[in-house]
Every structure is written in structure tokens, then in C-alpha cells.
Design a protein that fits this description.
Blueprint (H helix, E strand, L loop, with lengths): L1 H46 L7 H16 L2 H25 L6 H39 L2 H7 L4 H39 L6 H11 L2 H27 L8 H28 L1
Helix pairs in contact: 1-6, 1-8, 2-6, 3-4, 3-6, 4-6, 4-7, 4-8, 4-9, 6-8, 8-9
Length: about 280
Amino acid sequence: MRNSLKALSGCSAICVRGLGGLGRWFWSQWDELRHAAAVIGTVIQICVQPRYWVRPARVAFVRQVLVTGVEPLWFVGAVAAFVGISVVVQLTFWAGETGQSQLLGPLLVVVVARELGPVLINLIVIVRSGSTMVAELGLLKINGEVRTLEAQGQDPFRQLVLPRVLGMAVSTLCLAVVFIFTAFATGYWFAAWMGIGNRDLLLFANTVSGAIQPKDVFNILAKSLLPALFAGASCCLGGLKVSGTFAEIPPATQRAITRSIAGLFSISAVVSLLTYL
């Protein structure tokens, strides 16, 4: 009887510790979400006010757009070409084989424009630029440059966070548009070369454009911009929370990338539910 009571009390202690750990993890994630939402709201509020765009902020914004939106163009084009050859061609082939050519446009819009485009581009941007952002801001924090800006009376948020978050969002949207058009064009030309489907370019363009509805445009904009804003805010927060040694940068980068990817899929799912259900 005594042994049974000891075993029961041990199990209860383990359960209590487990629940306590789960609660601490939940509240820490909730705090991160609140902080990211606050950063996004502040960025949206002050980005439309020209007086906040001082020269260092403009330079940082242009640099972020070049790094995030221009340098990976070749890789985005290669991924879009692969998607065009593998997805667009298959949809064109099977729509013709089943005699459902009228469904080709809606299928292409749903699969490529609405889902694959924004999600793949956000993944590329998060993995490629998000980690760099965390490491860069972490180094600035460790080297004391953030404190130097504060000592000079300058706002680190306007010069470090605002241009990076906004630059990531703008670059993601532009890359998503490039991805969608490249995938459609590559898929059409490859299908025409293989003799699959209709070779009339204008007919293909009309089929795709006619299937796009206003809610599709909203869906593409939301799935491109919102996850990018969240990822930019999470990466900036992760970098600025680094303090002490350089060894803190890799764990901070891992946490920020994990949160950003989780936010990408969560936001995409919520946008789809709100738009189409």
C-alpha cells in the first residue's frame, strides 16, 4: 500500500512538472506572438509617414530589398520553372485527357497561384534571409551598436527593424508574382513543345486570367505579405534578444526560423479558411 502511494505521488509530480513545462512553453509562445504583432502594427503605422524615413532607414530598406528580392531571382526562377514543368504540364495533360479543359484555369489558379506560389516563396525568403537577419542584428546587439544608436538619440526600431521587416514583405510579394508568371509561362511553353494541350498562347492566357477572381487576388496578397511580415518581425526580435556571447546566435536563429515557418503555415491556413469557407 505504501509503495503504491509513493508510485502514485511520483506520477502526480511528473504530471505536474509536465503541465508546468507545457504552460511555460505556451505563455512564452504567446509572448512572442504578442511582441511580433506589436512590431507588425508599429511598422504598418509608421511606414506611411515620410518623416520616419531618414537616410539610414532608406539605405537599409534598399539593401534589404536587394538581398531578399533581387539576389535570389535566379533560384526563384529555377524553382518556378520546375513547378511549371511538373505541375502545370501535368494539369494541362490530365484536364485534356479527362475532357475537362474548362477546369484547367481554376486548377492552375488554385494550385500554383493561390497555394504553391506564396508558400514556396515565403519558405525561400525565411530560410535564406531570415537567418541572415537574426545573425546580423545579433552581432549588432553584441557589439554594442544598438546601444550606440540609443546613446546618440536615434531610434533603433526605425533604423534597424522597420526597413528590414518592410523590405522582406515587399520582396516576398514581388518574388511571388515573379514565381507565378514564370511557372505559368514555363508550363505553357513546355506543354506546347511536348504537344500537350492547346498551343494558342492567347487562349491559355485568357483561360488563366478568366479563372482569377477578386478573392484569389486578396488570397495571394494576404498569403504573401502577412507571413513575410510575421517572419520579419520574429527574426528581428530574435536577433535583438541576443545578448552576451556569439554562441547565442545559432539557437536564436533556430527559434526564429521555427516560429516563422510555423507562422507561415498557420497564417496560410487561416487566410484560406476565411477566404473560401
